[in-house]
Amino acid sequence: MKQSKDKLNQITDFMNEIIDKQQIVGLSVAVVEGSGIIYSKGFGYSQIQPENQSIDGDTLMSIQSISKNFMALSIMQLVEKRVISLDHTVAKYLPYFRTKNKQQSDTITIRHLLSHTAGFPSNLGIANMIAPNVKEIFSDTPTEYQEALDYYNLTEEETTSIQTREDITKWFNKVELEYPVGMGWNYCTDTYVILADLFEKVTGCNWETHLRDEILIPLNMNRTTSDSHVVEKDANSARYYLGEDKIEIPFPKNSISAPIGYLYSTANDLGKYIKFHLNKESTILRSDLINEMQNPVHLVSEEWRFESNNRSYGLAWFVDNYRGFRVVEHGGGQLAVRSLMTMVPELNLGIVVLLNFDSTMHHDICRKIIDIFIDS
């Protein structure tokens, strides 16, 4: 017990030390060991306007690309029920799915989409550029919005025509693959909208309804949602601040593209989620399929490598090594949003770090917590 208390005190001491050295707005941390959350604490503020509001482990925050893991888990639940197979082609379930070269895209499987090995470029932009407040996001200069469209080779007519997830899937008919299917890796965030489209066509069920009923409720994640309106009205929810001047950015919301990065959760709820994956609880998914999500499929590209040259991607999990220990994690980020959930299975350890400002501090905090558990 004393040893555990020492570890937790070390975490708090480090947090206070790093906060003294660096400007922050707010951050929330949860640590899971074994069967539950052993540490949950907020530092700083969830909002600083019109007045400072404290942040804690239950503060609702954007989790950005951690959202992809929930989409992947939903797909794996269909695999468990034998509704689909990971190695069936996407076109088998969505006949309208194709790229510029139909012969190539007809070989793309569900596994390829989940593991970012389908051959797509990484900078498509379509899923993020349909956000309802996209013009507000790109408003620093009179031409910034048009510059963003030009960067992604998109037109405003094109983005405003997207009304459904099926529209996103059909949009891919203009895309040229960058490498042969299955023979490389590119983080293409937009493909997770295709997965949601596939999920809904196969089941006849709205993905968000399934997420609530088959994942969030069973895991008692009652502070996790896809509804931005609920989050914005919640008394304990974060706003996001960019740069040294702490300029508040437009609230991150995009309901069509929820599976790529527009879910909202808390450090404590994500702690419950990590506990499920860490302990391979079979409550909502068989343990062998949980393992399959965490198994590497392909090495990631060089710019995505951190600790080692062996950093790989599974099914919505990055897999790496840190100080000789296997690390399984996924992060997210956009403008002033940062999120990270990490597992170290050999230590039976899980870590969640959420920020509402632009920084790489979440990685530093996570690695320091791992250090504390390795060295104690």
Structure description:
- By secondary structure, this protein is α+β, with helices and mostly antiparallel strands.
- The strands form 3 sheets. Strands 3-2-1-13-12-11-10-9-8 form a 9-stranded antiparallel sheet, with helices on both faces.
For this entry, give a set of tags.
single chain, 376 residues, alpha+beta, nine-stranded antiparallel sheet, two-stranded antiparallel ribbon, 16 helices, 13 strands
Q: Total number of helical segments?
A: 16
Major beta sheet summary: 9 strands, antiparallel
State the share of residues found in helices, binned by percent: 25-40%
**How much strand?**
15-25%
Distance between the termini: 13 Å
Encode the helix/strand succession as letters.
HEEEEHHHHHHHHHHHEEHEHHEEEEEEH
- The main sheet orders its strands as 3-2-1-13-12-11-10-9-8
- Ranges where pLDDT stays below 50 over 5 or more residues in a row are none
Instruction: Give the rounded overall mean pLDDT.
Output: 96
